[in-house]
Amino acid sequence: MREFLLGLRLLLGSGRGNRVRFALMTLGGSLGVCCLALVLTIPAILDAHDGRAAARSPRLHIGKPEPGRIWVREFRDPHGSRPFGRVFVAIGGADTPEPPPGLDRLPRPGEVYVSPALHEQLRREPGLRGLLPGTEKGLIGAAGLTDPDELYAYIGTTPAQLGSDARTLKDFGKDYPPSRVVDPSTLEALRFTLATLVLLPLAVFLSVCARLSAASRNRRLAALRLLGLSAKGTQRVSAAETVMAALLGAVLGLGEFWLLNQIVARTGLPGLKWYAADGAVSAGTVAVCLLGCPALAWFVGRASARAAARAPLATRRTAAPRAPRVLWGLLFVAGLGITAGFAATGLTTHPARSDGLNALFMPTGVLMTGLGLVLALPLLSYLLARRLARSGNLALNLAMRRNEVEPGSALRVVSGLVLLVFSASLAQGVLVELSQVSRSTSPVQEYGLPMERLSEDQQRRLRELPGVDVSAVVMAFDNDLDSDADDGQADALVATCAQLTALTARVEGCVDGEVMRLSDPNTGDEPFGTSKFLLKKDGGRLALRVAVPKDTVRYAGQGVTYVSNAALLVPPGELPPGAVPASATLVLASSSDPSTVRAVLDAIGAVAPTVEVDPAGVNIEALQQLTVIKTLLVAGMVMGLVIGVAAFLVSVTDRAVERRSQITALALIGARPRVLRTVQCLQVVLPLAVGLLLALVAGKLAETAYLVTGGGEVFWDGAGVPVLLACALGVLVAAVVGTLPLTGRRIDPELIRRD
Predict the structure, then answer these.
(1) Residue 117 has what pLDDT?
(2) Which residues are 553's β-sheet partners?
(3) Which residue in 554, 536, 553, 533 sits closest to 545, CA to CA?
């Protein structure tokens, strides 16, 4: 305790520079703790979302609805790219279960309770009221909604209106939600990626903040050791300052996170919004931040003071330290070997999968590679400096000699940026894997809308929507008309050859203006006879009979498509002028890119808000989940960027302050400012360039190992290489710009005789 109090006294009475450094350590630690709290709170936000969805889910009796009991029927439809949930409730007299969370009572017939987001949506789109028969009686509370932006409603009705598809209600509340924000298996991959993106750079950043001004601190500690303080006592004095800075930084960081949570919870992120209470800091997060960060600072402070405590004379005389250990280089090589081994299996006929022991080895190899890359930077900087220091260039010689004497400075300066590039490559692999799982394999995405629910103006506007490449009509045959043939009938695709080509992968034998038979060799053909279609014209009805054509057009389908429902190709000119099918589906097609699909769905919802849309092969819940995952990954990359840049700026600034006496001495013996700036730049840029090159190689191997074990079709993400190269080049440019102003123009001779 005496050494701890001595450390605090030295902190408060050792001058303005030391107090500024303490403030810098505290602010840096607060930024790191804020990011740490955010990463630890993300699972709690997702769990709160799923918990409320489970608490309101109705538990139903199996079988037909029982008279006199409460009947329930659920609908989950897309409104644009957002899910729209409706629960119809018919109250009986036999029982009165508790209302769902967010409601004081169940709605009576003709009453509607809506979410606040749906209430606002009804103001913008009054046509939605057609889906909510009744009068709005109130709003659903937060306890009954997964997030503030959810479209959800409870609608009171009668058993006769619900029909036989309804079910008898037991009560509300299940042990599991009907659908999760993020699938559990995907959540594990997301946690691993966020740990690599944020937690690994965060540990390095907190260590950097704990070792600011290491040289001057070690000289002061060596002086205490020479005055008679024990070796362990000297280490405790050093740890006292770092622990106090980490503790204050943790408290400040938790306050920063609280403020950030209040702001972001109200504004939301793309695809993800939550209540501020969901993001409240839990007791476990507080314990990790208030205990874990000071504990890390304690060990770092003791480790940084070990040299001064063991060899105080060498520290006071700035003796050359020993060469970095080769052990950390072996850790990097071992991790690189594991990831390279998994990546190499992608070249074989039996690639590795993430099951069994591979589920442990692959993440371990990635973490070993990232951690070993950071810890091996001093060794790489030392070896590079020894080799380049023999050159005849003055600036290069001075820069490399300093890096040779102090190779550990490379770890503090460039490690954050190197980890940023490594983590960005791994995040690219996760996005590629998710896009393979969630994206349709077809390059074309279709949307089906019932034409009887659409006006002519709506049909025209839907065909002209941005992103819609082609439109067609699938006409359903009419069973009510008399049939002259014993065979069945077939639906017809009303389209030209160009439209058919746009909807399919390949077309052979199509002739414009002729009725033809559609044949897909992959699905087989069903026999059919003359087909009859009911048309509407000028308020009347007329029949269109289409005999079985002789000519056949062959096509290759695009997966899940409306074209496969039709066996006839009918040119638009075959329909009488002004006639429209009585029963048909308007088919729109766009690119299958998720952003395009989401934009087209939103545009369809704006044109026809009450019309049911069937996006062929697309699960709106999965599309929403992909948006959430991308948002979280982008947030993780932003946090990693903030941490990496902050570590670089803090380290470079501290390095410049620490070396003022050396720069002053060089200036007094005649070194020009341009030479000094070049020296400062080379000391940072060369180790950084080597680290970035290794980060690119190691990151691509880690990404490939993840893609191979993920079981997707894409193993080699060549499209991400230019992005990573651009990021690495941008990091180098930022490093050069960041080091140039730190040489300083004012030369103070007093600096060369100060401690």
Answers:
(1) 92
(2) 518
(3) 533
pLDDT of 115 over the 70 cut? yes
β 135-139/444-450 pair status: unpaired
For residue 395, CA distances in Å to 387, 392, 400, 401, 739 come to 15, 9, 9, 10, 15
Q: pLDDT at residue 105 above 70?
A: yes
Burial 152-189 (b: 16+ CB within 10 A, else e): bbbbbbebeebeeebbbbeebeeeebebbbbbeebbeb
pLDDT at position 10, please?
64
d(CA 58, CA 73) in angstroms, rounded, equals 9
Kindly tell me if the per-residue pLDDT of 316 is higher than 60. no
DSSP β-bridge partners for residue 116? none
Nearest residue to 626 via CA among 54, 190, 39, 265: 190
Taking 60 as the threshold, does the pLDDT of residue 688 lie above it?
Answer: yes
Question: What contacts 113, CB < 8 A, 6 or more positions away?
Answer: 103, 107, 136, 137, 138, 139, 140, 153, 154
Closest C-alpha to 30, from 247, 283, 282: 247
- Output the average pLDDT for the chain: 79
Whole-number Å distance between alpha carbons of 531 and 383 = 82
Place of tokens 């969370």: 101
pLDDT for residue 486: 46
DSSP helix/strand/coil, 575: coil
Q: List Cα–Cα distances, 619 to 430, 437, 442, 518, 612, in angstroms.
A: 20, 12, 14, 28, 14
DSSP 8-state secondary structure symbol assigned to residue 15: -
Q: Which residue has the tokens 């007299």?
A: 93
Structure confidence by residue, pLDDT tens digits, 201-250: 777 776 666 666 556 666 777 777 777 777 777 777 777 777 888 888 88
143-152, 427-436, 440-449, 673-682: lowest mean pLDDT where? 427-436
Rounded to two decimals, the pTM is 0.69
Quote the CA–CA distance of 125 and 132 in Å, as a whole number: 12
What residues have CB less than 8 Å from 619, skipping those under 6 apart? none
The label of the residue with tokens 């005389």 reads 317
Tokens 């002209």 -> residue: 464
- Strand 111-114 relative to strand 135-139: parallel, antiparallel, unpaired? parallel
Tokens coding 90: 């018919």
